[in-house]
Specification:
Chain lengths: ~260, ~260
DNA sequence: CCCGCAAACACGTATGTACGAGTTGAGGAG
DNA sequence: CTCCTCAACTCGTACATACGTGTTTGCGGG
């Protein structure tokens, strides 16, 4: 790696050696000396350059990996993470005019972007709701709900998991309780059943993924997830569905429009 | 820590030892055997329990810290992270009626929650905009903008930094270019200047914090940040302000209302 | 009884060693 | 020329050791 010149350590600094090294590499990435996809010098090369032990180098590399700046590939090296192009989720994605065109939001958006959407792991159960879900739906935790779990993929890559909860009173023996919820998705079905949707409330959190989520969404180290809790309300103010969605934060930008009124 | 019983290692598993140990502790946290704020057994105790080297224990603990589940406190121990009560940002926070009451959104919300809001590090400059900002404002990168940086604190704890950009053409020699932007904040001033605000578009990303952000927001390890880019549009569709906000993701839940239309 | 200080304890940083396992490319066999 | 093997390189895991620095606690002297 003669191409990349890293500074030497500052012997008087009280900053830990592994942090100084992480700083040097981070600077190189931010400067563009190490562009996306570039290979970071190997552990052995960095040991030689700085004259420190391997553990020190590994500590430094782990800092960068935790920041989501690099990924290590076993047997190949450490590389600057290249971020996939992000998808922007519009705030009108649940507008009725989209439903009336017969496609669920995810399918329509993805095809629009020229990619191939798919959905797998669809699982439908009638269960007692988690307490938080019962609260959002304003029902008793003893009332059963239909839960619809699924995973969304773009060009075969998993990008999002979601679980919807609908009171069983509403959804039982309807197409909502079928794996294929029909044209326009479950929101179209709810409206056919006479539940006129008025608005959704979407609560957005960000956090580090759980272990399962890392596996299911094939997340790189150092990538947080969005967790969205979306509740659908009818014009009467009745909550009829809660959807709990987890998505990789580096595949998405969420876009919302706020009225200035 | 006789209170907490951790399983033994599975000698036939091909899962790395440090991951198994991390799994055990994670399970204990999720089960509630290690409640919020509880002290995780010390490195020495875990070494003894599992009969492994300290580095192995430290690797395990680092996994959990990276997941945001624990924090290590030098000289004291490792503790289960307790999440502070979250603040919920309503989607009508920029409604005109709030501006007319003379308080900026942040101040009003925080006082409402019974906490003491403050703002520091206010810095106002006239600069050339970053290219991305110029694009959002639909101006040339050569046109100057007023940038207003500030940091928001709740009860003295920093929770959010923000930088607003307003075309200098609009804001020069107005109160917008003063540290104290007056009652109702800069949006009230813009409306007084004849820019009737119609709506905002807020783009939400989540990512791991940069080094500076960790320092400025006093972020715990394993806590991602939200980055919000909010653009204010007038009724004529003219973008008049862009605000780039970074906030700790564990102090906030963002809440948006979406029309079903 | 209280204060102060030292020991015990805890995590942080760093060195050195060893072996395992995935990837790659060069060189030799066919 | 092609294919295969193997060596070299790379990161992953784990052990042992040492010393630094911040925190807590308990003992002993005043």
């Amino acid at each position: 790696m003669a191409e990349l010149s890293l500074p030497d350590l500052d012997p008087v600094s009280d900053r830990a050696v592994f942090r100084q090294i992480a700083d040097h590499i981070r600077d190189a990435i931010e400067r563009g000396s190490l562009p996306e996809g570039a290979k970071v010098p190997s552990e052995a090369q960095l040991m030689q350059h700085y004259g420190v032990a391997r553990m020190t180098i590994r500590n430094a590399l782990q800092v960068l990996q935790g920041e989501g700046l690099t990924v290590a590939e076993h047997g190949r090296g450490v590389f600057v993470r290249s971020r996939p192009p992000v998808r922007r989720l519009a705030s009108d994605r649940f507008a009725r005019r989209h439903r009336e065109q017969g496609k669920a939001a995810f399918i329509a958006e993805t095809e629009e972007a020229g990619a191939k959407p798919s959905v797998d792991s669809i699982e439908i159960k009638e269960v007692r709701p988690p307490v938080a879900v019962a609260e959002w739906l304003s029902i008793s935790p003893d009332e059963l709900v239909i839960s619809r779990s699924r995973r969304y993929l773009i060009d075969g890559q998993p990008v999002e998991t979601a679980v919807s909860y609908i009171p069983a009173e509403i959804a039982r023996n309807t197409q909502i309780a079928e794996p294929n919820s029909g044209p326009g998705g479950i929101y179209a079905r709810l409206e056919e059943l006479g539940y006129r949707l008025d608005h959704f409330v979407e609560d957005v959190k960000a956090r580090m993924p759980l272990r399962d989520e890392v596996r299911t969404l094939k997340l790189a180290p150092g990538v947080p997830v969005f967790q969205l809790i979306r509740t659908a309300y009818t014009v009467e103010g009745l909550p009829v569905e809660v959807c709990d969605t987890v998505m990789s934060s580096d595949a998405y930008v969420l876009s919302y429009e706020l009225p200035a009124r």
